[in-house]
Amino acid sequence: MRVTIRLILSLILAAAAVVFISTGFQARQEQERLEEELARRAAVLADSLQESVEPLAAGGNLEGLQRLVQRFGARERLAGIAVYTNDGRPLAVTQSLPSTFHSPHDMVRDVMEDGEGQGLFLTDESKRWHLQVLPIRWAEHIIGAIAIVHDAGYIDAQRDRLWRQNFIRLLFHVLVISLTTLLIVQWNLLRPLSKTIEWMRHLRRGELAEHDTLPKGDVFAPLAREVTHMAKSLTAARAAAETEAKLRHAAESRWTADRLKEHLRKALNGRPLLLIANREPYMHIRQGRQIRWIMPASGLVTAVEPILRACGGTWIAHGAGDADRETADASGRLRVPPETPLYTLRRLWLTKEEEDGYYYGFANEGLWPLCHIAHTRPIFRAEDWQRYADVNAKFAQAALEELEDTEHPCVLIQDYHFALLPRLIKVKRPDAQIALFWHIPWPNPEAFGICPWADILLHGMLGADLIGFHTQFHCNNFLDTGDRLLESRIDWEQFAVNRAGHSTWVKPFPISIAAPEISGEISKDKFLKELGLTVQWVGVGVDRIDYTKGMTERFRAIERFLERHAEFQGQFTFIQLGAPSRTVIKRYHDLGAELDAEAERINRRFQTRQWKPILFLKKHHSQEEIAPFYRAADVCLVTSLHDGMNLVAKEFVAARADLRGSLVLSRFAGASRELREALLVNPYDIEETAEAIYAALTMSPEEQQRRMERMRWTVQEHNVYRWAANLVTELTRLQPAQEHVAAST
Ligand code: F6P
């Protein structure tokens, strides 16, 4: 309050000073203007009297003279007129002339001596007068003078009125300023401040509820950002401590970030960790004039990022954001996560031609459909293949730079973008231990064999010491492929490929998520209301818009479900969150339009005024934005036609601390090997999926709980920290190879 009073007083003083100075200036100008006007009027009057007075005075016509002055003397603000002889005797005087002027003023004598008329303001008996004197002449001689006296008091009165008016205006300003200041301070400072204090108090006590949000607005935006980061770290630290405590209590062996850190410290024993993935974990993008960062929609990023957070190291990736260059140093490096830096991200810059050929072309129009059997034909172009090889060489160069001055480094290469990279690194750095993790399925040898460069890809991959897939089935396919397409020896007991004296172990490592404990509750009703939904049941799907995800089949299964179970019409809405992906590729671009049309068709078929069955939200959603959808859903649909793992299934399970909700899961997603309690479906079988949705929505709460408990146990036990620990432990257990590794294909 004291600050408010000080603020108001300062504003009032400033306003008063401005009013005082400007009124003084204005009053002086007004006075000068009125005085000039009066002097001019008096001079004109004197001139016009002079002509009539002179003959009357010279002829001694005193009566005529008196009548004349009396007639002129009746004018506004004129106090009186006197005509004097040259020895100072009054010849004619108006009755109204103040007595002071009955005998002539000194100026009258001066005027008669100089022969020039004069005007003067003078004060007498606290009144202001204006005296104008003009000589009267006859036959070249000065025979007397005319004195004209005006009452100048109205000029002072006018000045005083101006001061009074401006003083009243000042009072009004003071009132308005005080009220406005009070309102501004109250609404923009005090209220948000007390809300922030309340929020921080709740945070400190761990009582933060869903509806407790930080105030938004310009003044508090930077503070809110900082405090939110601090709060997140605090919540994470608290959650980690609680988890540790629980684990200690239950004597369990669950993997956490801290445990992984400790484990990898021992396993790596000072050896540096280098991770190479096409996709970067933090992408800087322009939004209007602002630059902000996002985490791209990528299962790989979701899974691998916690490892780097836990252990530090360097992640090399393609800098694909339109503001990536401005936010990195000259060598493309920056520390991330942006709010609490823990490891280094090194961005590599690719030309448009490189990106088109390597990423969109060979990786995503060739290898992606080749490995996912989803009935989209792979396209192989020689130019794309050349770019793919060039970009692999570029990443190899960057990796070798990062590995300079290190010994026996551990290199984790991610995914199908870098099949050639393991060998490119290994030939230069035989001491490096290299793992390649393939995040997508591996097909059978016949399917893979159609790639014109299948043998070169396999040779490149076999430069790694360890190759990981999500499932044993994919490992077997890979070993079969190596057996058929390359000159190599397969050790089916050890699951290894031996080629030219170098062994590569091939093992399953089912990837997962960090599976954090999520606390707090959301109000489903409130959340649905915000989305404009009034239904009783909701389903959710969260995907990159990709033809492998079976989204068209999913929409059709929803249509069939509503046909077969009409009682759910008006009561069930399916929300599809779809992140646009690889839209430069025609198949992906067309798919977006296909899905829009399909959702539209189904909606038109069933919708009423207040309800439609499918809500298709086509945009990138952050993890924080997705969480409430998972937690509000009665059923989550994961209907991939083919998927290496699918982490959405695991994220949904991890989000359901309330042990409610059901998961409908494709049997062709790697996750179906672990999440056995989900309702498993063949996504191509629309009838089966429709019935699974019905079973999910009519499942008893006890049954939901039973299934959810077991799935949650699986996800929490087999989290990404365990995955990382297994992968790195397996890699470091292999003897560092020093043998010569063939570079030739
Ligand atoms: O599944 C393979 C994969 O690399 C995932 O790790 C990830 O979810 C997805 O593809 C991302 O695709 P992109 O990086 O091309 O957007």
Protein architecture, described:
The chain is an alpha/beta fold and 745 residues long. The protein folds into three domains: 2-157, Beta-Lactamase (2-Layer Sandwich), CATH 3.30.450.20; 260-508, 3-Layer(aba) Sandwich (Rossmann fold), CATH 3.40.50.2000; 524-718, Rossmann fold (3-Layer(aba) Sandwich). Helix content is 49%, strand content 18%. The chain is built from 21 helices and 23 strands. Strands 10-11-9-6-12-13-14-17-16-15 form a ten-stranded mixed sheet, with helices on both faces. Helix 6 (257-268) runs parallel beside helix 21 (720-733) and helix 8 crosses helix 9. The longest helix is centred in the first third of the chain and has 57 residues, at 2-58. It is elongated. The mean pLDDT is 91. Bound molecules: 6-O-phosphono-beta-D-fructofuranose. 6-O-phosphono-beta-D-fructofuranose binds at residues 279, 298-300, 415, 439-440, 581-582, 644.
